[in-house]
Amino acid sequence: MSTDSAQANIYSLSPHKPNLPLPPLTVEKTGINFLFLIELLCKILFLNGQMRLQDIASHSKLTLAVLEPLLAFIRTERMCEVSRQSETETAVTYTLTELGRLRAQDFLKKSQYAGAAPVNLVDYTAHVRRQSVLDARITKQRITETFQGIVLHRGTLDLLGPAMNSGRAIFIYGPAGSGKTFIAEKLGGLSPDNVAVPYALLVDNEVIQIFDPLIHKPSQQTDSGVSLDRGNTYDQRWVPCQRPAVITGGELTLNMLDLDFDESARFYQAPPQVKANNGLLIIDDLGRQLVSPQNLMNRWIVPLDRRVDYLALHTGTKFMIPFDVTVIFSSNISPTTLADEAFLRRLGYKIHIGDMSEEEYQAIFKQVCSSFDINYQEDSFQYLLQKLHYKYQKPLLACIPRDLLGQVRDFALYHGVEPTLTEELLDLAWNNYYARDEL
Length: 439
Hints:
It contains 19 helices and 17 strands. It is α/β, with parallel strands linked by helices. The chain folds into three domains: about 35-115, Winged helix-like DNA-binding domain superfamily/Winged helix DNA-binding domain (Arc Repressor Mutant, subunit A), CATH 1.10.10.10; about 125-350, P-loop containing nucleotide triphosphate hydrolases (Rossmann fold, 3-Layer(aba) Sandwich); about 360-435, no CATH class. The protein has a five-stranded mixed β-sheet with strand order 4-7-8-12-11. A five-stranded parallel β-sheet has the order 10-13-16-5-17. Strands 1-3-2 form a three-stranded antiparallel β-sheet. Helix 18 (about 400-415) crosses helix 19 (about 425-435). The radius of gyration is 27 Å and the shape is elongated. It starts with a helix and ends in a 6-residue tail after the last helix. Residues about 1-10 have low confidence and may be disordered.
């Protein structure tokens, strides 16, 4: 299939769901090799047994117009049988013959992938660019709505909005417990628009599974299945989802950023940066990975510059894939000690999240008291500030009120009393939290 024809298909967008392509009406318009689709259908029939046409369409995400010539070919090759219980299309069922079962077993040895039909790399690239993070517009109103009720410096919010609009990498740093990870996760909910995510991608006849239900959250208007009325409103090989937010932490290694080939199943899982396309990739706790932060950050130099990444199949075939991602690095370490100037220039925004003021800390303390049904007492709060925080020189961090008051609640539940802000309970919680033998 030529690049032009693939792109013509991708830019024929559904008028009902404008961020999704129209369903292909011919096998050629799928952008996928005819014989690959034959093998896919044989595997689906082998693993599911007798199937109605409706079920085949729902499983493969292919339209009736595409399925008809494929199933006709399978019948002509005597690999399947058809039974009809009535004259309606939905009553037609397909079952593999013995020859078909033998052929399907051969196909499964090549690859056990038997899910939704994939899209090709040209179509995928075109659509990722069409719904780029560079086109997402974050307004001050949207920032305010998303962070409503969250205690944060106004100046910090006024940096986060422009940082997200830039499409460039963001470095959020500050002491542990200051709320960096929480803030990064909230940024994932800023964009109200949806994007299309394919179930799978086909590169050099190899399947790469992209859609991940743990990451990709389908939007409310997702259709439940493929219709046989030839009037599908969009190509259901794509799933309309919220913009993804992928979070990786200390477990991240360089190998995890490559394609993950399953030797037994014979197909690939996409790496996190591909699953994050058109959304956020949050690299949390930078500096705690087994790989050095310098090597990890150097891995992103080309993608951040050119907005493309390079991956390799186990066959040795290398290919270019979009890197349409806003990368957020979160670390307890200052960026100047983690990377050289060349990399720091590629970071659009470097945002420090530090200690809180007394007023901000008090606001969080009151919020947590309310959520734990603990009666707020001003004198107890002042005791926490003056006799504990300042005496032992502990910073006012966003995480501490919930951690301390959670222990106050736990102690009260154990003793069968109402949780109250007594000095004794605050002392117990403080000693346990900071692992102090005594005050």
